[in-house]
Amino acid sequence: MSILNILLYPHPVLRSKCKPVETFDTELHQLLDNMVETMYVANGVGLAAPQIGVELQVTVIDTGDEEVGLLELVNPTIVEHSGELQAGEEGCLSFPEIYAPVERYPSVRVEAYNRKGELFSVEGDELLAVALQHEIDHLHGKLFIDYVNRFRQNQIRKQMKKRYGKKELFWTPSN
Ligand code: NI
Predict the structure, then answer these.
(1) How far apart are CA 124 and CA 145, in angstroms?
(2) pLDDT at 165 over 90
(3) CA 168 to ligand 1 center in whole angstroms
(4) 3-class secondary structure, 21
(5) Cα–ligand 1 centroid distance for 27 (angstroms)
(6) Is 135 a catalytic residue?
(7) Of residues 55, 66, 72, 135, which has the active-site annotation?
Protein backbone atom coordinates (compact mmCIF):
# COMPACT_ATOMS: atom_id res chain seq x y z
CA MET A 1 0.00 0.00 0.00
CA SER A 2 1.10 3.53 -0.46
CA ILE A 3 0.19 6.97 0.69
CA LEU A 4 -1.02 9.19 -2.11
CA ASN A 5 -0.74 12.92 -2.68
CA ILE A 6 -3.98 14.79 -1.99
CA LEU A 7 -4.89 17.49 -4.47
CA LEU A 8 -5.55 20.97 -3.15
CA TYR A 9 -8.19 23.43 -4.29
CA PRO A 10 -8.27 24.82 -6.98
CA HIS A 11 -6.66 21.85 -8.76
CA PRO A 12 -8.81 21.32 -11.90
CA VAL A 13 -9.25 17.56 -11.35
CA LEU A 14 -11.35 18.42 -8.28
CA ARG A 15 -13.96 19.69 -10.75
CA SER A 16 -14.05 16.49 -12.85
CA LYS A 17 -17.22 14.55 -13.39
CA CYS A 18 -15.90 11.11 -12.58
CA LYS A 19 -16.59 8.03 -14.66
CA PRO A 20 -18.29 4.98 -13.18
CA VAL A 21 -16.11 1.96 -12.49
CA GLU A 22 -16.78 -0.87 -14.92
CA THR A 23 -14.30 -3.53 -13.88
CA PHE A 24 -13.84 -4.65 -10.32
CA ASP A 25 -10.30 -5.85 -10.70
CA THR A 26 -7.08 -5.81 -8.70
CA GLU A 27 -6.36 -2.32 -9.96
CA LEU A 28 -9.54 -1.12 -8.25
CA HIS A 29 -8.59 -3.02 -5.08
CA GLN A 30 -5.20 -1.37 -5.05
CA LEU A 31 -6.78 2.04 -5.54
CA LEU A 32 -9.15 1.40 -2.63
CA ASP A 33 -6.34 0.12 -0.37
CA ASN A 34 -4.24 3.18 -1.11
CA MET A 35 -7.17 5.55 -0.61
CA VAL A 36 -8.01 3.97 2.76
CA GLU A 37 -4.42 4.22 3.96
CA THR A 38 -4.17 7.81 2.74
CA MET A 39 -7.44 8.79 4.44
CA TYR A 40 -6.29 7.36 7.79
CA VAL A 41 -2.85 8.94 7.65
CA ALA A 42 -4.44 12.29 6.71
CA ASN A 43 -6.91 11.96 9.63
CA GLY A 44 -9.82 12.36 7.25
CA VAL A 45 -13.37 11.10 7.63
CA GLY A 46 -13.59 10.52 3.89
CA LEU A 47 -11.60 10.65 0.68
CA ALA A 48 -12.81 10.66 -2.92
CA ALA A 49 -10.82 9.42 -5.92
CA PRO A 50 -10.61 12.81 -7.70
CA GLN A 51 -8.84 14.13 -4.61
CA ILE A 52 -5.95 11.83 -5.42
CA GLY A 53 -6.17 12.58 -9.14
CA VAL A 54 -8.24 9.58 -10.23
CA GLU A 55 -11.40 10.45 -12.13
CA LEU A 56 -13.47 7.45 -11.07
CA GLN A 57 -16.57 7.15 -8.91
CA VAL A 58 -14.81 5.72 -5.89
CA THR A 59 -14.84 6.98 -2.32
CA VAL A 60 -13.93 5.72 1.16
CA ILE A 61 -15.45 6.87 4.44
CA ASP A 62 -14.79 6.12 8.10
CA THR A 63 -16.52 8.36 10.62
CA GLY A 64 -15.11 6.42 13.56
CA ASP A 65 -18.46 4.74 14.24
CA GLU A 66 -17.45 1.17 15.09
CA GLU A 67 -20.81 -0.28 14.13
CA VAL A 68 -20.49 1.04 10.57
CA GLY A 69 -16.73 0.73 10.24
CA LEU A 70 -14.92 1.47 7.02
CA LEU A 71 -17.05 2.06 3.93
CA GLU A 72 -15.73 1.53 0.43
CA LEU A 73 -18.21 2.92 -2.08
CA VAL A 74 -17.96 2.37 -5.81
CA ASN A 75 -20.41 4.18 -8.13
CA PRO A 76 -22.46 5.44 -5.17
CA THR A 77 -25.78 7.25 -5.54
CA ILE A 78 -28.06 8.86 -2.99
CA VAL A 79 -31.39 7.12 -3.44
CA GLU A 80 -33.26 8.74 -0.56
CA HIS A 81 -32.90 11.61 1.84
CA SER A 82 -35.03 12.73 4.75
CA GLY A 83 -35.35 15.54 7.23
CA GLU A 84 -34.84 19.26 6.78
CA LEU A 85 -31.53 20.66 5.57
CA GLN A 86 -29.26 21.41 8.52
CA ALA A 87 -26.16 23.58 8.61
CA GLY A 88 -22.99 22.15 10.10
CA GLU A 89 -19.29 23.02 10.02
CA GLU A 90 -17.55 21.06 7.30
CA GLY A 91 -13.98 20.59 6.20
CA CYS A 92 -12.26 18.80 3.33
CA LEU A 93 -8.79 17.30 2.86
CA SER A 94 -8.43 19.43 -0.28
CA PHE A 95 -8.85 22.54 1.91
CA PRO A 96 -6.63 21.78 4.94
CA GLU A 97 -7.67 23.53 8.15
CA ILE A 98 -10.54 25.41 6.52
CA TYR A 99 -14.07 24.99 7.82
CA ALA A 100 -17.36 26.49 6.72
CA PRO A 101 -21.04 25.88 7.41
CA VAL A 102 -22.79 23.73 4.81
CA GLU A 103 -26.42 22.63 4.70
CA ARG A 104 -26.96 18.89 4.34
CA TYR A 105 -29.77 16.42 4.81
CA PRO A 106 -29.61 14.80 8.26
CA SER A 107 -30.33 11.35 6.88
CA VAL A 108 -29.59 9.67 3.55
CA ARG A 109 -29.68 6.23 1.99
CA VAL A 110 -26.99 5.40 -0.53
CA GLU A 111 -26.64 2.52 -2.93
CA ALA A 112 -23.16 1.57 -4.06
CA TYR A 113 -21.04 -1.35 -5.16
CA ASN A 114 -18.39 -2.89 -2.95
CA ARG A 115 -14.94 -3.84 -4.24
CA LYS A 116 -16.25 -7.17 -5.51
CA GLY A 117 -18.94 -5.49 -7.60
CA GLU A 118 -21.82 -6.40 -5.27
CA LEU A 119 -24.58 -3.84 -4.81
CA PHE A 120 -25.26 -2.77 -1.22
CA SER A 121 -27.18 -0.10 0.59
CA VAL A 122 -26.11 2.05 3.52
CA GLU A 123 -28.15 4.42 5.66
CA GLY A 124 -26.43 7.28 7.38
CA ASP A 125 -27.49 9.88 9.92
CA GLU A 126 -25.64 12.88 11.29
CA LEU A 127 -21.90 12.76 10.56
CA LEU A 128 -22.20 9.75 8.25
CA ALA A 129 -25.01 11.46 6.31
CA VAL A 130 -22.83 14.55 5.89
CA ALA A 131 -19.81 12.49 4.84
CA LEU A 132 -21.84 10.53 2.27
CA GLN A 133 -23.22 13.72 0.72
CA HIS A 134 -19.82 15.46 0.79
CA GLU A 135 -17.93 12.54 -0.79
CA ILE A 136 -20.56 11.78 -3.44
CA ASP A 137 -20.50 15.47 -4.40
CA HIS A 138 -16.74 15.12 -5.04
CA LEU A 139 -17.46 12.47 -7.67
CA HIS A 140 -19.50 15.03 -9.59
CA GLY A 141 -16.98 17.85 -9.31
CA LYS A 142 -18.88 19.56 -6.54
CA LEU A 143 -17.07 20.95 -3.50
CA PHE A 144 -18.24 22.17 -0.09
CA ILE A 145 -17.16 25.70 -0.98
CA ASP A 146 -19.98 25.72 -3.57
CA TYR A 147 -22.54 25.80 -0.75
CA VAL A 148 -21.16 28.78 1.17
CA ASN A 149 -21.95 32.41 0.50
CA ARG A 150 -19.88 34.52 -1.92
CA PHE A 151 -18.13 36.40 0.86
CA ARG A 152 -16.92 33.26 2.61
CA GLN A 153 -16.07 31.68 -0.78
CA ASN A 154 -13.77 34.57 -1.58
CA GLN A 155 -12.20 34.37 1.86
CA ILE A 156 -11.48 30.68 1.37
CA ARG A 157 -10.06 31.24 -2.12
CA LYS A 158 -7.75 33.91 -0.75
CA GLN A 159 -6.68 31.73 2.17
CA MET A 160 -5.84 28.85 -0.16
CA LYS A 161 -3.96 31.14 -2.55
CA LYS A 162 -1.98 32.69 0.27
CA ARG A 163 -1.00 29.32 1.67
CA TYR A 164 -0.45 27.28 -1.48
CA GLY A 165 -0.43 29.77 -4.35
CA LYS A 166 3.30 29.44 -4.96
CA LYS A 167 3.49 25.70 -4.43
CA GLU A 168 2.23 22.66 -6.27
CA LEU A 169 -1.43 21.96 -5.70
CA PHE A 170 -1.11 18.85 -3.56
CA TRP A 171 0.06 17.74 -0.16
CA THR A 172 1.44 14.45 1.10
CA PRO A 173 0.02 13.19 4.38
CA SER A 174 2.49 11.57 6.76
CA ASN A 175 2.34 9.86 10.14
NI1 NI B 1 -13.76 16.72 0.62
Answers:
(1) 22
(2) no
(3) 18
(4) coil
(5) 23
(6) yes
(7) 135
